[in-house]
Structure formats: C-alpha cells, structure tokens
Design goal:
Blueprint (H helix, E strand, L loop, with lengths): L2 E7 L12 H7 L3 E7 L19 E2 L9 E2 L1 H11 L5 E11 L2 H7 L4 E5 L9 H8 L3 E6 L8 H13 L9 H6 L17 E2 L2 E2 L9 H19 L13
Parallel strand pairs: 1-2, 1-6, 5-6, 5-7
Antiparallel strand pairs: 3-4, 8-9
Helix pairs in contact: 3-5
Bound molecules: adenine.
EC number: 2.1.1.228
Organism: Demequina sediminis
Family: Belongs to the RNA methyltransferase TrmD family.
C-alpha cells in the first residue's frame, strides 16, 4: 500500500528538498507520495466569513504572554481538507512525546500522515483536541529537548526517519536491523580500508575473520558506547566489562 504524506506549512518552499533527499528514492519506487500545502491558502476568509486580505494565520494568546498562537479556524479548514478517515495527524512540538525509532516504525505503517507545522508559540490547543475527539490518531511529537523556530525542520526529520522504514524502501533490510536504536542500543563503530590511517589501526578482531568474536566485540562496543553516551537507554540488567 502506498503511503500518502501531506504537509501543511506557511513555508511550503522549505519542502522542495524532499525531492532530492533519500525520500526521492521512495517516491520513485512509488512507496510514498507527498503533498505540500500552504496554510495561507486556508486563511483567505476570517472565522466570521469576511475576506482577510492579509491571510492572517496567528493571533495574540488568550491570557497574555509573549509570541503569537496559530489560529484554530485556519488550521481546522486546512486539516479538514487534507486529513483522510484513516490518516494520522502529527503535530511537531517541543512539548510533544519523544519522537523515537519505535514511533517512526509505528508511523511507517500508516496509510496517511498529515504533518501540521506550527510556527511561533504553537497551534491553538483545541486543534489537536478536536481531531482526537473526532476519533483520529493525533500525535504531538518532539524531536528532542531543544526549541526550533517551528515544526518544519522537525517534520522533515520525522518524514525521513519514517519513510526509510516503509517495507521495501531500503535495498538492504539488514542495515536497518543493525543500526543505532533498532535494538535499543547505539550502533557499534565501523571501519573500512585502509587498515592503517594517520597512525590509527582498525581493531584486530575485525581483521580476524572470526565471526563469533566479531559479533561479541560489536555487542560490547554497543554497550560501552551506550553506557558512556546514553546511559538512559540501558536496560537495568545490562553489564559491560570495564
Ligand atoms: N518545534 C519547535 N521545536 C520543536 C522540537 N524540538 N521538536 C518538534 N517540533 C518542534
């Protein structure tokens, strides 16, 4: 089944690079189709039906505070137009659940993903609530614990992580199985020729041809790296020799 991805944004030109990324290959293979929509196309009329020559997409927050909030009525028109009955609404937000490899793999099975890219201080919270209440799967997801200017860069990263997991996308399925995060650990270090470079040698075991020892060494490296860099990922029973 072909996946359909819709992106709604006030910066549609940002997504022109979808064509030249890895995702271009998935599109050529007819595994995914992407459609980018300009949010301002849905802002030609105000909530009361009168024309809005400025195509306003944001307004001041109720309750006061810095920044602007994107308007529910404009987002509602856009999402009503693109979201299909079986579609999943993804809203990139620094306040969302962590976007993980597991979530990417889960979303790779969807028939349609709609990315709602908010700028400024976010989208009126009733938008997520409305579509969840209407029975849609709605996911507010964060790329990491830092703040971007808007959802575009996050949506792009998510789209790349998801589309490469669509069954049939990558030629070498094993490279997906072995990569960082697919087994909950960071990937082991890799080397290629030459065996010596600037005085640095490739670990002997990798030149030994001894498959069981190589597999054991890689596993140890995964655990050691994960312990050093991402101890939060380690299962409580993981042991690694010092
Ligand atoms: N929008 C702004 N910051 C973000 C983040 N860290 N993740 C997802 N969307 C965002």
């Amino acid at each position: 089944m072909k996946m359909r991805i819709d992106v709604v944004t006030i910066f549609p030109e940002f997504f022109g690079v979808l064509d030249v990324s890895l995702l271009g290959k998935a599109r050529e293979a007819a595994l995914v189709e992407t459609h980018v929509h300009d949010l301002r196309d849905y802002a030609a009329f105000k909530a009361d039906g009168s024309p809005d020559v400025h195509r306003t997409v944001d307004d001041a927050p109720f309750g006061g505070g810095a920044g602007m909030v994107m308007k529910a009525d404009v987002w509602g028109k856009a999402i009503d137009d693109v979201l299909r009955p079986s579609g999943v609404l993804v809203i990139p937000s620094p306040a969302g659940v962590p976007f993980t490899q597991a979530l990417a793999a889960d979303l790779a099975e969807a028939s349609q993903l709609v990315f709602a890219c908010g700028r400024y201080e976010g989208i009126d919270a009733r938008v997520a609530q409305h579509y969840a209440d209407a029975g849609y799967r709605v996911i507010e997801a964060s790329l990491g614990d830092y703040v971007l200017n808007g959802g575009e860069v996050a949506a792009f990263a998510m789209i790349e992580a998801i589309t490469r997991l669509i069954p049939g996308f990558m030629g070498n399925a094993q490279s997906i199985v072995e990569e960082s995060h697919s087994d909950g650990l960071l990937e082991y270090p890799s080397y290629t020729r030459p065996a010596q470079w600037r005085g640095l040698e490739v670990p002997d075991v990798l030149l030994s041809g001894h498959h069981a020892r190589i597999a054991q060494w890689r596993r140890d490296q995964q655990l050691e790296r994960t312990r050093e860099r991402r101890p939060d990922l380690l299962p409580p029973d993981a042991t690694v020799a010092d």
